[in-house]
Amino acid sequence: MQTHRVTAAWKTWLSVRAYSVVTRLYGADTPPVTMRRRFERLAAVTRESLTARYPNVVFSDHQAGKLWIEGVRAVPGPRVIILYLHGGAYLFGSPASYRDRARRLSFRCNAEVFVPDYRLAPEHPYPAALEDALAAWAHVSALRPGASIVVAGDSAGGGLALSLLAALRDSRDELPAGAFVFSPWTDLAATGASITRNEGRDVWLSRRHIEEWGRHCVGKSTVADPGISPLHADLTGFPPLLLIVGDQEGLLDDTLRVEARARDARVDVEVCVGRGMQHDFPLTMPWLEESREAWETVAAFLDRSALPR
Q1: Which domains are seen in the chain, by residue range?
Q2: Burial code of 251-262, b = ≥16 C-beta within 10 A, e = fewer?
Q3: Which residues contact 140 (CB under 8 A, 6 or more apart)?
Q4: Which of 6-15, 39-48, 234-243, 262-271 has the lowest mean pLDDT?
Q5: Active site residues per annotation
Q6: In the prediction, which pLDDT does 10 show?
Q7: Structural contact between residues 174 and 144, judged by C-beta atoms closer than 8 angstroms
Q8: How confident is the model at residue 8 (pLDDT cuts 50, 70, 90)?
Q9: Contact 176, 150 (CB under 8 A)
Q10: Would you say 146 and 189 are in contact if contact means Cβ atoms under 8 Å apart?
Q11: Global pTM?
Q12: CA–CA separation, 215 vs 218, rounded Å?
């Protein structure tokens, strides 16, 4: 047992060090176009390369007006539909750079996954991404009527997922069966105490990152607008929520404060905090024991809240 703990600790240490090397490519002052190009170069994969390795993966193309949405299915009979909103600070990320993650998500959750290519800042600041998320929801809901549909996302996409829920609730539209988010960015003003407390522990995001990147995103609005900082949104009437975050990240309080607001609004909410974990850890370091436990929590959440009996 002791040997296992030591081995796991070294595995985590090495994984975080490797992660920190990659995150240095995305500095607070790095131009968004440069970050976008770097992220696509590192993370984007072609459909052909994935189907060569995983012949059962099926891709599909969908169009909601000008918005392209990619469907990914890695299981023959998915039990749930996931509308997944990718991360990237609203500045970078795409269906191509999230394609392998969508494949894993489909396999782990027995799901058909839809990833919209929502518009990015600074060329398209708020509310462009939210408008596209609403269009994607309307399209997927019409495409799979009667299906159990869940909204999910990570980082900026996690915050966008929560903003989408508030917009759907306010317009009295049908809500998803539930939502789960990884390390959601919910406060563009960077007022959480963990921004300071975890400075130096978080190997990616600093207060300067949040403040600089937030300026690219807000457009004519402000960082306190609940449409882009869902920490300030009314969560009344939200479906069941699962929030997953690492205890070493600056955005820890972006999750914990949303949890508190959800409980005050009598929302069914669960939080999974990864001990010693970094931003987006189930996605970026899926081989770690903490990440496997987080994925098991996601599966249990879907089985309890969203999957048909």
Answers
A1: 2-305 (3.40.50.1820)
A2: bbbbbbbbbebb
A3: 62, 69, 81, 83, 114, 149
A4: 6-15
A5: 155, 249, 279
A6: 80
A7: no
A8: confident
A9: yes
A10: no
A11: 0.96
A12: 6
Q: Exposed (0-12), middle (13-18) or buried (19+): which is 52, by Cβ within 10 Å?
A: exposed
In the block, tokens 């696509």 appear at 40
Q: Residues 148, 192: contact at Cβ < 8 Å?
A: no
**Calpha distance 54→245 (Å, rounded):** 29
User: Which backbone phi and psi does 67 adopt, to 5 degrees?
Assistant: -90, 125
User: How far, in Å, are 13, 42, 70, 159, 173 from residue 209 at the CA level?
Assistant: 23, 20, 29, 16, 35
Cα 210 from Cα 215, distance rounded (Å)? 9
CA dist 268 and 241 (Å) reads 6
What's the CA gap between 93 and 102, in Å, rounded? 13
pLDDT in tens, 145-204: 999 999 999 999 999 999 999 999 999 989 999 999 999 999 999 999 999 999 999 999
pLDDT in tens, 118-150: 999 999 999 999 999 999 999 999 999 999 999
